[in-house]
């Protein structure tokens, strides 16, 4: 059953969904949650190799919860990984993308995947939360 306080996710999250809260980096930051789900099935706690994962990042502001970043391009490759490990892997990627944005690389003419993959509000979110994701992924 879907939590009625969370809006419907624009990304299909198949099978069993694993939720993780990203701890605050500084006092008063909004709640950030990451959801991951393995395509083709997957039991939370078991490790899967060669798996494709769907993900969604939710920010809970004073106004209301909002889906910020979603996708289905996360893969565990040859190394088996659990849902929790894939959340931390995603956090590593999000932190790195935030560092790219924070360095000013997306200003002007940038052909990097990062600059083209995210819209302005998403880039602002990544820049603001890059350290938070880095600490969480460690």
Overview of the molecule:
This protein is of the alpha+beta class. It has one domain (17-137). 31% of the residues lie in helices and 25% in strands. It has three helices and four strands. The protein has helices spanning 83-102, 113-117, 120-137; strands spanning 17-22, 31-38, 52-60, 65-75. It has a four-stranded antiparallel beta sheet with strand order 1-2-3-4, covered by helices on one side. It is globular and about 40 Å long. 28% of the residues are buried.
Weakly predicted, low-confidence segments: none
Give the count of helical stretches. Answer: 3
Percent in strands: 15-25%
Strand order of the largest sheet: 1-2-3-4
Distance between the termini: 32 Å
Extended strand count: 4
Structural class label: alpha+beta
* Average pLDDT score: 86
The tally of structural domains comes to: 1
The helical percent reads: 25-40%
Major pleated sheet: 4 strands, antiparallel
**Looking at the structure, what is the overall shape?**
globular
Radius of gyration: 15 Å
**What string gives the helices and strands in order?**
EEEEHHH
